[in-house]
Queue: 2 jobs
Job 1
Amino acid sequence: MSRIRIIVIVAITLIVIGTGFIVASGPEPHIAIPPEILWTFGFFNISSTMMASWAAMLILIVLGYFATRSMKLIPTGVQNFVEGLLDAMLTQMEEVAGREKARHFFMVVATFFLFILVANWVALLPFFKAVGITQDYGEEIFHEIQEQQVKGEPFDDDHHFLTWIMDDVGGVKMALPGAETFKFELHLGEQPGEALDRYIVALSEQFTDFRATDDEHPSEADVHGAWEALQADPEAPKFHGEGAHAALPAGSKLASLAEEEGVPSPALGVTLSSLEFPGQKVGMVYPFFRAAFSDVNNTLALAICAFFIIEFWGFQALGLGYLGKFFMNPLKNPIMTFVGFLELLSEFIRIISFTFRLFGNIFAGGVLILILTFLVPFIAPIGIYGLELFVGLIQAIVFAALTLVFAVGAVEQHGEDHESHGTDDYGHDPNAPGDTHAPLPSGAAQAH
Amino acid sequence: MDILSYLPFLVALETDGAKAIGAGLAMAVGAIGPAWAIGNLVGKAMEALGRNPEARGAIQTNMILGVAFAEALGIYALLTALIIAFVI
Amino acid sequence: MGSWVMPTAYLLGAGWYFAACIILGVVVGRWADGQTGLEPVFTLAGIILGLAVALLGGIRMLMPLMERIGSDSPEKK
């Protein structure tokens, strides 16, 4: 690369970072622990983390396909890479578990490692958590108020809405630089009419120059003033009363609801049945992809799989004697009864710790990147991305290694003398009849 | 003792101020234990490594495992803080 | 100019290409969605195409760097 190209690339980078500070200031990020549900088919929800899991699975399947397509005895290309990877994993496992046990456990532990690793690393690509469906929240808030009105009861829970003011750019709803945040809450025990009044005032404060004297409990004068301001501005959201719903666009969700009960507004004295946003929209982006293990359901599923597989291996190796580890005869050995009970408990607690270790690391990393991106646009996330790479790798290693260690512990005979404990660090297994691995120098026996 | 001067603190118990205090304390105090544990663990691992550099693989593997256990507790504290701040 | 400049320039260039491809794919996908109105289909297709182009081009750009690293140390991973 010539010197000119280097200088140009560095200059462009610096300019973009500089303008990023000025231009790319955005609204508040939306942090939610439950994954955003994108589409629903009956009872089956597709969430953003499910899409990311599928992406990771797709990558692994494609890699596997290309690695085994035309297998040669002396591997080249993709097959070489995959074989090196698997060999490194097997060597590490043999150090912990011994030769036969490592091969016995290899498939499951290696799958855990590769799946978690790929899912964590693929979450660092640029489009994760950034591109997605724009959920129109303006109408949805009104829809919730309407539903509560149909039920005829006050709200039974707090509901916070954090949304962005988005513009319609060529048919695409997007939040332009400098977009604002619009927050609204539905309070516990509030009547739908009061919520509607507050919503009218909040919308008017956001979209017009009107300022109410009291946001939480707006007076009648406030609501009337807000209403006038909304009607006056052509770009502001418009409420429609009964009989006016024919003016709605045909596909709008609210057009089908407008035949239902409208919501009476106590302060205004009219019943409002629909809402439309001619100018700027109120919405939130539901990302298509989100880090696969930033979802408790996902990590819980893996932890339960690991639990059942470890118990299965225990039963497979020891038969029903596996239960003899936990339930001991209280007459012969009273202390060990208690210890056995604690060990049984710890088998189940492991599920919780597996789940939350992986979830906490990945979710916290994602939240950190998100908040830093919204605070200091282009510079601060750079270091955090490096940390995320490292954390993704370590968490994959830890999950797989812990599964392996617990499996080895489950399969052990009680009081066995650790016969096939492992290799010593010169790569020699003291118990193997003939070592098919040539004695490796100690630096290469551990794969880094 | 002026009782009235405590009123702002009592008011904070009903609003988001309490959430912020709770979340901050959860993470701050919750990170002390794991930090000390991990520091101890890695320190002893360094000592062992210095005494016996050839056992590097075993020491490294076991150290990473131990650090993972200790760090999990710190992550539980972080999760509690996040849940207090964003969900409750 | 020391020896850290060339790898940095390679990485910066490849990084820009990567990001630009994905962003371009997403923007084209979103614009197509805005024109035709099927919400997710074109965006997803744009993401996948952009990602594919980015990966192929990015890896091709990084090959000289990886080979240089590979030939420096005798150990192979």
Job 2
Amino acid sequence: MSVFFLYPIFLFGLIAASLPLLIHLLNRRKLNRIRFPAVRFILMSQKRISRSYRLRHWILLALRTMAVVLLALLLANPIFQTGAGLFAGGGPVSLVILLDNSLSMTWSGDGIGFKQAKEAARLLITSLGDSDRAAILPTSISGKEPLRLKLEKDVLLKELDQIEIADGTANFSIALGKAYELLGEPAGQKEIRLISDLGLTGWDNFSMSSLKQVDPAIPVKAIRVGRKQKPLNIAVKEVRAAGHGIGVDLPLHLEAVVANFSDQEVKDLLVQLSIDGQNRDQKLTSVPPRGDTTVPLQTRLSQAGSHAGLLTIKKDGLAGNASMHFGVHAQDQLRVLLIDGDPQTSLVQSETFFLTRALNPAGESDSSQYLPTVIVPEALSGTALDSYQVIVLCNVATLPDAFVSKLQNYLRGGGGLLIFGGDRLQADHYNTKLAPILQSPIRDKKQGLEATGEKIGKIDLTHPALQSLSDNLLQESIKSARVWGYSRISASGKSVLMSLANGDPLVIEHRVGSGRVIFITTTADRDWNDLPVKTVYLPMIQSLTNYLAGGKRGLLDGGISVGDVKQISLPPGYVGKTIRIAKPNKQPAEVVMNAAQERAAGSFEDNDVAGIYQLALTRDDQESGTPRLYAVNPPFLESRLEEISERELQAKLSPVRPDVISIETLQQGGTRRDLALPLLGLLLATLLLEGWFAQRI
Amino acid sequence: MIADGQKKYFDPKVLAGISNLSLRARWVVEGIMSGIHRSRSKGFSVEFEEHREYSPGDEIRRIDWKALGKFDRYFIKEYEDETNLRAYLLLDSSASMDYSSDGMTKFDYGCTLTASLAYLILRQQDAAGLVTFSNRIENIIPPRAKRDYLTQIVHALENHRPGGETNVGRILEEIAGQIKRRGIVVLVSDLLDEPAQILKGLRLFRFKGNDVIVFHLLDQAELDLPFEGNILFEDMEAASLNVIADPRAIRQTYRQVVEEFTSQMRKECHDSSIDYQLISTSTPLDRALASYLSWRE
């Protein structure tokens, strides 16, 4: 039951209610003086009528004040409403229905929330009179749609039927802004009805200040679609790669983070991983109340390129987004560039002989996941480093300045660099030219007899690059190895991954930008150590190579949220071209690529559906590792089904004071009465009474 | 009856334009007398008034021979006309009589009425005297039947200005004590005093065998209270008596109060065989004079 005013501006007229009193007081101050002989008669008259006169006087004053108040109220045109009020009476109505079609409506009302919301909207539309106008706006609108108030109910009902659940969060700023814009022009009764589950997420970033126009006089009623019981409210929060790099036929370690929004523990929750539509792994897990659980999942990709991934959680009675799309971009073979600083005519005697064999034991180009390429230092200037995931310097004496600069950029971009020592390596050159890369200066070379070689003393098996060497057999192999020549460097602490028994560092690591650098102070061949003939050599080299290639090998893309803008970056050849995008709902879309920092860049805004978006790229680009798909997911917090309270809603919408009513109240109906006519009658009666009293005073 | 054309003689607004009171009185009286049948005065008698020395040309028969015997000089006996009427004209000249809402003040109206009565009385060879009073006797001119006595009365009226408080009842008692011979007492007053006191004084005149006529003069505004808005009424006699009132609010009751007062006066006068006439200052003077003449007849 409420009263609202069609023209509340006239309520300022209530101030005029004080006028009769002011006039009365002013009249008392403005006295005319008259010298009169029969004052005694006046006194006698006053005494005789004093009590009744005062009473009538005050009644007259009250009547005049009441007349002004009634006039102000009449002009403001009050409407008395009971229940939800379905526009019975009160003149033509201009109504905007905001229908919350955010994803959370999927789970509202035990799964029938959206249906209820549409029923409520239908009820409101059918309750409109012939001269009433209305518009129905889903909260997923972009604001660019042409909208207007319509008289035709059948058109409105058709529009209502076409509204479906959107994958994104309700955009109340745009929807409310559009509602006020639509109601800006028409006169008479105006109303905004919001039909929603009042999920908290949609209001998180809402601010009335973002609206261009607000009219607090327009009543806003929120019709709450309620839930009957509290469901198990859970959602996939995040998926991330746990390993180092994503390659073909390599173990793909993923971690799925599942969040529980409910107050009870979720047990026996099945988490499934599928790649390109095929189930690859699944785990059962439990999620504590109001907490997260990280679920490790593993698979192996057999083909290079982009793959559509999907994480799904399954359990009966779950509410919340149960799946998450992601893109996996797998690299086929690791391209490794070996720079041989001591090439020999005999292959066996070459600095890179053992290294090449360790990376490609069979010696065939497609038999290994590593594709080593050997060059001599003189060929460095013509080599494009970006084609390689790892670069290995083997006993290279010096490096050209131009190459050092390219190498720094390569490392900053996530490349990996493995440096082996040797007799040709010029310490002074490395200490000066490669100081930013090497970071630990080379002091001198230490060489001895093979028989007096140092054992390997310490090895950091916790380090990701060496974890694979924890096997006992490999440990024994390491212990049996001897090192009799090496460069002594000043390094200590965590950067030392492996050291000799005498404490001198053997393997150290540094980071340059997002790239990794590992310096092995001894040679890659048997000149200063016998490691190349030990069992551990092959796994150690492959492990170090995998580790170094991590930043450049493959990609796991968790995607963007529905409604966000996707920034697409492609090779420079796409500048000026239009890329076709296939949306999950098969709708075609396009994006124009422009030049930006030696790349082709474009923005795609129409990410309104959750799923995988495919980019139409040429085969060459696909092979070069450019992602050809990306994922779009509902905002994670949209799965949170907590509601905004009425007080919080009123605070959010201040200065507008919305009423929150249940959908049941709406269904029960209500009445609306225009109080203008009764007020007019009351005003006339008051004026007549005032006239009657005035005559008698 | 008075012809329509002659009504202007009695219109207070017209009379107010005539500054000379004597002329105003003659205007009124001649106006009324021209409309009625002239009658001779009733009865005739002579009454010794005074002696004066004989002068050549005087009638021999009027010489007082007894005086010659006593004083050895010739004296002529002067007689005044003996009349059957002695009129005492009592005019209230208190401050309240100085009120006018439109046209003549009550005092001016009273003066004109008094002078007209005096002229009428003297014209008919009756004796007319004048007493003006407020809370005390201001002026007394004993009744005389001399034709030129009007000048003296008018002179007294013209040279008197209203002022002072009213004490009609006490003054009437005082005047009644001074009247030795019976006659007619004409009181012209607004009677703004205690009714009981006034009536007591009037009854004293009646007790001494006088006929009494009361002309109760009130301004039309005193009868109707026609003012608008909130007004501070200041009493014309008692400076401390002020009252704020909304005339519209009290008008009806005020009129009732005034009506009750005049009704009481009328009834009490009637019960005491006193002729009472309530006259508004907007009333033509013929009505007042007609009242007198009707009594005279």
